[in-house]
Specification:
Elements lengths: L1 E2 L7 E6 L2 E6 L10 H12 L7 E6 L10 H4 L4 H19 L5 E5 L2 E3 L1 H8 L2 E5 L3 E3 L2 H4 L7 H9 L1 H10 L3 E2 H7 L4 E3 L4 H13 L3 H16 L2 H17 L1 H11 L9
Parallel strand pairs: 3-4, 4-5, 5-7, 6-8, 7-10
Antiparallel strand pairs: 1-2, 2-3, 8-9
The structure holds 3-methylmercaptopropionate-CoA (MMPA-CoA) (1HE).
3-methylmercaptopropionate-CoA (MMPA-CoA) binds next to α2, β6 and α5.
């Protein structure tokens, strides 16, 4: 276990072997995101140490995050608002398209910008206290941290519209059922599960993780012909890597695990 320097007191960082644990540390404000915290996320994810193979992000206190710090919102004019939203996009793009996959461990409120951060991560683990909402609709604003692009990819546009039109809150179990989280665990078990998944992800071939993070989203965003071509190209490049050849030989010679083992 190794502490590393954080760009802000609102984030705590810890290295455990090849995994970086990022804890959001503003529990007195329910981990609401002020600019310092958004910029802190950006800095952490653009400076991932080279030995790190996966990140686990979670919230300290009773909630993952209450979203945007609303006390900062009312001071901005339209131009500042535009740049502020683009700052969120920049920071969360670093999470989604950084150097390593990111597992989010969720509990309590995952609302507004908190859901935007969670949806920029690659896998979500939810404890039973988790609840999801997009209160922007009720606050008289619109999402600005990427939710309109990322959340429909998890749950579909109709469900996102409903969340914003009506203020609908999804509880942990429903959230897992509709695709907001991939894993549902007992309260207090999320970090352990997140680390277990991060270890599995870390043991993959680097090229597989790269393709999943950087190529699959582009395939999904493209037309069928372009997507199929990109798939062929990345499949050929991945299979050509020495790591892939070694893994295939290991399987054929009985040294690799069977599916499900
Ligand atoms: C905050 C924030 C915040 C709490 N900005 N200060 N997000 C929201 O609309 C969610 C608003 N928050 C809540 O609904 C509740 O706080 C929670 C359900 C998340 C948690 O409830 P609870 O009872 O545990 O905490 P609390 O008593 O409501 O809040 C504790 C303190 O945190 C209190 O401050 P205090 O100085 O009076 O102690 C709250 O004011 C403060 N706090 N949430 C600022 N969000 C890129 S665009 C994204 C747009 C959005 O994210 S909009 C959604 C905003």
């Amino acid at each position: 276990m190794q502490e590393i320097e954080s760009p802000t007191a609102s984030l705590q960082l810890e290295i455990r072997d090849e995994i970086l644990l990022v804890a959001i540390n503003r529990p007195e404000k329910r981990n609401a995101f002020n600019d310092d915290l958004v910029l802190g996320i950006e800095k952490v994810f653009e400076n991932i140490p080279s030995q790190i193979r996966c990140v686990v992000i979670y919230g300290l206190g009773k909630h993952f995050s209450a979203g945007l710090d609303l006390s900062e919102l009312k001071e901005r004019d339209a131009v500042q608002g535009l740049h502020h939203s683009r700052m969120w996009h920049r920071a969360l793009d670093k999470v989604q398209f950084g150097s390593v996959p990111v597992v989010a461990v969720l509990h309590g409120a995952v609302v507004g910008g908190g859901l935007e951060l969670a949806s920029a991560c690659h896998i979500r683990v939810a404890e039973s206290s988790t609840f999801y909402a997009l209160p922007e609709g009720q606050r008289g604003i619109f999402v600005g941290g990427g939710a309109s692009v990322r959340v429909p990819k998890l749950i579909g546009m109709a469900r996102m519209m409903d969340m914003m039109f009506t203020g609908r809150v999804y509880k942990a179990e429903e959230g897992e059922r509709i695709g907001l989280a991939q894993y549902l665990v007992e309260e207090g078990q999320g970090l352990e599960k997140g680390i277990e998944l991060a270890k599995k992800i870390s043991s993959n071939a680097g090229m597989t993780n790269y393709a999943l993070m950087h190529v699959l989203p582009k395939i999904v965003d493209s037309g069928q012909n372009e997507g199929l071509m990109m798939e062929s190209l990345i499949a050929a490049i991945s299979a050509d890597a020495p790591e892939a050849k070694k893994r295939l030989t290991d399987f054929l010679e009985g040294r690799a695990k069977k599916v499900g083992e």
